[in-house]
Automatic annotation (TrEMBL):
Protein name (Swiss-Prot/TrEMBL): Polypeptide N-acetylgalactosaminyltransferase
Keywords, ordered alphabetically: Disulfide bond, Glycosyltransferase, Golgi apparatus, Lectin, Manganese, Membrane, Signal-anchor, Transferase, Transmembrane, Transmembrane helix
One Gene Ontology biological process: protein O-linked glycosylation
Pfam families for the chain: Glycos_transf_2, Ricin_B_lectin
Its membrane topology: Single-pass type II membrane protein
Coiled-coil stretches noted in the UniProt entry, renumbered to this chain: none
Protein species of origin: Oryzias sinensis (Chinese medaka)
Superkingdom of this protein's organism: Eukaryota
Cofactor: Mn(2+)
Location(s) in or outside the cell: Golgi apparatus membrane
Stated family: Belongs to the glycosyltransferase 2 family. GalNAc-T subfamily.
């Protein structure tokens, strides 16, 4: 009966369709509800697992890590840029190569706040974060080895996400991560005589059994890709992410003084001990000796650097430390930082060059300590040679493809080495330098330095640091990880292809002890076809001291002045007058100082076909103010209202006319009033003057003009006179003579058409 009623109710197609549609909707709702229940179950399960994992990680952090001070974390963990960008940090210019100046903190609260943010790099010719350009005829690949699990990694529970564990190719090696591919003689100590230090044909970088007369390998550009101003060597090679290694012989004590780069404030009761030992290194030696020699430091690289890729077959390097009476703890800390944080397959050796130290602990105790490290070699010089020749001694015995020079009071950060070698791999003429960060000389804290800085110089060849302008950064689309072209390197920390180093002639062997060598090698690299770069992804901490602790066999100031004069004479061309004119005029007098023979260096520059200094200024350092003269044009006398004119060796006055060459004079950096090769020379004893051939060494040809803001600034004051005597125009017969200076006498006031400098 019910079935009959249903048939009668559904009689007709319209009612059937309505029924089918309603049933479908009900079925769909049931299906969706069931699906949602299923998804909720899965999400609940995942969430529960995540909460458990996070709780476990928090427990591990509490167990393994002390309460770290401010932003400092585990050495292989990233610093939080947001936590530090508003802090005051020192500019490198405040602390490096600044003589007795102390580190000064300055505020940086502009666009630089954003510079530590992760920015997708846009390298045009680099391989750092994007595709790799391949090359034909590539050398055989070097296999990137892996560190085995038997190596103790500091605080491993914290760094599982970042550490790189690799297998060894060698069956048995020592526990530290830097065992040799070919084991060196552990106890080998090389003693060099002083006459073997300078580069010579017999001492050059020849391999054993190599024909010394064979033609040297030329500078090979190979296949290059030209993009903008960067030349990139094209190679075929696999790539890998930069290895963020920090491997120690034993786990670190997280509670040790200075651990994780933290500053240490000692109790006042120990101040006397700190003062007593300060002069040993001109920093807090007492505190340094209490800090572990393999302490952890924070990873201060821009975040993108940990994701950067480098080639598998990078060249190997010899790391060279030169030292004299270095503090024990800082020397060991420097060596350990290289051993712990360098990929072992790239580190051929560490060469310690002892420049005739007098400290007993740097003799047999140092030999004994370093004997546990197969890759460490000690070279001892038999007499004091100075930094420059000590480096040449280290380079002479180095076997790595690349030379890496470091100061002996540094701490290399994670991932420091591969970015340097990558730049040389891409172009062997590139000379990369790490970002030099500050290790505070008082509390030994590791301090972050602004990314966007480069080395420059000001007259008279004074090194300094310069922050890139915001406009420059935007114009060139520079990111936090991009290499920065550097007009002048600081000189203490850099890598260079060994063959290229010798092709350039190494350092000028005529430079003594220390000073000016960074200028010389920088000009040589740039003007002879190379490039100097600062690599933000490579970072090394350096103890900056307010005073240079090195002793000089001769007078310190004269040694540095002599070195700078050699650099100026060989490399500055006509611009050397700017160097001498900034307080070094006395160096032009050969009876005062002998700068030595320059013939070999000048011939080397010609042989290398180096560009001139004007090219350097226009293409490398256009920001430098370098006018060839201080003033030039017509010389106008305010009393006569006419201009000075020269005909042969006589002077007169004429109506001013820019078209007359006889009225054009220049006031040079050597304070000469000059026209061509002739100079106006004061003769105070006769109250007169003469026109003579210019001689840069003669002080009696010089005049003070615009050299101060005094009331006599517009006068020509004879420099060599016993009293102030000024050049004066005679109103009656248009003649010239010398008279006692009078600030109100308009006939003693002179004006050039153009002024370029007032110092």
């Amino acid at each position: 009966m019910r079935l009959m009623k249903l048939r009668r109710y559904l009689r007709g197609s319209g009612r059937v369709l309505v029924f089918v549609f309603a049933a479908s909707i009900v079925w769909l709702l049931f299906d969706m509800a069931a699906l949602r229940v299923s998804i909720d179950d899965v999400n609940t399960h995942i969430l529960k697992e995540r909460v458990l994992r996070e709780r476990e990680m928090r427990r591990q952090r509490v167990r393994a890590t002390p309460n770290l001070k401010m932003e400092f974390k585990h050495p292989v963990q990233r610093l939080d840029p947001a936590a530090i960008r508003d802090r005051e940090r020192p500019l490198a210019s405040d602390v490096y190569r600044e003589g007795s100046k102390r580190a000064v903190l300055k505020e940086k609260k502009d666009l630089k706040r954003d510079r530590f943010k992760s920015v997708a790099p846009q390298h045009k010719a680099d391989v750092y974060n994007h595709g790799v350009i391949a090359k034909q005829d590539a050398p055989g690949k070097k296999k990137v080895p892996n560190l085995d699990f038997g190596v103790a990694v500091a605080n491993a529970s914290q760094v599982r996400a970042n550490k790189v564990i690799v297998e060894r190719d060698v069956a048995k090696e020592s526990l530290h991560a830097v065992a040799s591919k070919e084991k060196l003689d552990v106890n080998e100590t090389i003693v060099l005589e002083s006459n073997n230090l300078l580069p010579s044909k017999a001492m050059s970088h020849q391999k054993p059994n190599e024909d010394p007369n064979a033609q040297k390998e030329p500078l090979k550009p190979a296949a290059h890709l030209h993009m903008g101003n960067i030349t990139t060597a094209v190679r075929k090679s696999g790539v890998h992410k930069v290895l963020s290694l920090d491997v120690t012989h034993a786990p670190r004590d997280p509670n040790a003084l200075g651990q994780f780069g933290r500053g240490v404030v000692l109790p006042s009761s120990e101040d006397e001990e700190v003062r007593k030992r300060w002069d040993e290194g001109h920093f807090n030696v007492y505190l340094s000796d209490r800090i572990p020699v393999d302490r952890a430091i924070p990873d201060t690289r821009p975040e993108v650097c940990s994701q950067a890729v480098v080639h598998d077959d990078l060249p190997s390097t010899s790391v060279i430390f030169c030292f004299v009476d270095e503090v024990w703890s800082t020397l060991l800390r420097s060596v350990h930082s290289v051993l712990n944080r360098s990929p072992p397959h790239l580190l051929t050796e560490i060469i310690l060059v002892d420049d005739f130290s007098t400290k007993d602990y740097l003799k047999e105790p140092l030999d004994k300590y370093m004997s546990q490290f197969p890759k460490v070699r000690i070279v001892r010089l038999k007499e004091r040679q100075g930094l420059i020749r000590a480096r040449l001694a280290g380079a002479a015995v180095a076997t790595g493809e690349v030379l890496t020079f470091l100061d002996s009071h540094v701490e290399c950060n994670v991932g420091w080495l591969e970015p340097l070698l990558e730049r040389i791999y891409l172009d062997r003429r590139k000379v990369p330098c790490p970002v030099i960060e500050v290790i505070n000389d008082k509390d030994m804290s590791y301090m972050l330095i602004d990314n966007f800085q480069r080395g420059i110089f000001k007259w008279p060849l004074v090194f300094g640091w310069n922050a890139l302008s915001e406009d420059y950064i935007r114009k060139h689309n520079i990111t936090v990880s991009d290499p920065i072209r550097c007009p002048v390197m600081a000189g203490g920390l850099f890598s260079i292809d060994k063959k290229y180093f010798y092709e350039l002639g190494t350092y000028d062997p005529g430079l003594d002890v220390w000073g000016g060598e960074n200028m010389e090698i920088s000009f040589k690299i740039w003007m002879c076809g190379g490039e100097i770069e600062i690599i933000p992804c490579s970072r090394v901490g350096h103890i900056f001291r307010g005073q240079n602790p090195y002793s000089f066999p001769k007078d310190r100031q004269k040694t540095v002045e002599r070195n700078l004069a050699r650099v100026a004479e060989v490399w500055l061309d006509e611009y050397k007058e700017l160097f001498y004119g900034h307080g070094y005029q006395h160096l032009l007098d050969k009876s005062v100082i002998d700068i030595g023979n320059l013939t070999e260096q000048i011939e080397l520059r010609t042989k290398l076909k180096c560009k001139n200094f004007k090219w350097y200024l226009e293409n490398v350092y256009p920001e430098l103010d370098a006018p060839l003269v201080k003033a030039e044009g017509l010389v106008f006398n305010q009393g006569l209202r006419r201009c000075l004119s020269m005909f042969k060796d006589s002077l007169s006055f004429e109506t001013c006319d820019l078209n007359k060459q006889s009225q054009h004079f220049s006031y040079t950096w050597l304070r000469h009033v000059r026209q061509g090769d002739l100079c106006i020379a004061p003769q105070p004893s006769l109250n007169s003057f003469s026109v003579v051939s210019c001689d840069n060494a003669k002080a009696e040809l010089r005049w003070f003009h615009k050299s101060s803001k005094s009331t006599l600034a517009d006068h020509f004051i004879a420099e060599f006179a016993s009293q102030h005597m000024c050049l004066e125009a005679e109103s009656r017969d248009d003649s010239l003579h010398l008279s006692p200076c009078d600030s109100n006498n308009s006939f003693q006031k002179w004006q050039f058409t153009h002024y370029y400098a007032s110092v």
